[in-house]
Amino acid sequence: MNRVTHRLVMPLAVVTAVGMIVVWFPFSTLLSQRTQMNAVSQQIALLHQQGHVLQVQQKALSTAQATEELARQEYQLVQPGQRLIQVLNNGDGTAGDPGDSPLASPLGTSGVTSGSQHSVHHGAGFWSRVVHTLEFWR
Question: Who's near 95: CB < 8 A, 6+ residues apart?
């Protein structure tokens, strides 16, 4: 009986392995291709939606009034004989003189210097303050 079992087990294992290879590899490839096709289909749908939005925007901007508004708002263009006046604002969104704003640091840090740095160079001579101001050139 033991011999019969050994004779059946080996061919059965080989047939099972071959069957798994034949079935599994094409099936996994089909699954991965299906997933890729779904992703591409979603991207195509998104592009169609964006194209529709752009067509609506094109129709909205095709009028002379819309073109003039866009030229004024985005490019600061005015009609011949008109003048453009810009009101600058402070960092907090309120209108004001930009000269009242603190100076930006040349090192790219915040525009406010610490009190200790300011006090050290406050009493120094003119040239030492100039050298300290241009220190970032080194």
Answer: 87, 88, 89
What is the full DSSP assignment across 46-66? HHHHHHHHHHHHHHHHTSHHH
> Residue 66 is encoded by which pair of tokens?
């819309």
Inside any domain, residue 124: no
pLDDT digits (tens, 9 = 90+) for 109-130: 544 444 444 444 455 678 887 8
pTM score: 0.39
What is the extent of the structural domain holding 46?
Answer: 2-97
**Domain assignment present for 88:** yes
Q: What separation in angstroms does the CA of 67 have from each of 45, 61, 76, 109, 136?
A: 30, 6, 12, 40, 46
Q: Would you say 76 and 86 are in contact if contact means Cβ atoms under 8 Å apart?
A: yes
